[in-house]
Amino acid sequence: MISVSLSETFYLMDEARARELRIKSGRKFLLERAYRSLTREQVAERAGVPIETVIVIEEGISDFLLEDMLSLLNVLDIDINEFFADLI
Fold it and tell me: pLDDT tens digits for 36-48?
């Protein structure tokens, strides 16, 4: 599997728009996780990713790998296309 970051996926997007997308997707992920009453630790453990990955995504701190996001969304039983549909 090829590791691709969010910014690489939307390579035509300027940095400001990429940052906005990271922040919006992070907030949305946080709300979906909280709705399911799961902690960051629980989601990270179930997805097999470090807790720092969940923190980076939820807080929009920096770019993240789409495969990590896919793993996290699988834990929450959310389709990646549906998740990003209203964000892009």
Answer: 999 999 999 999 9
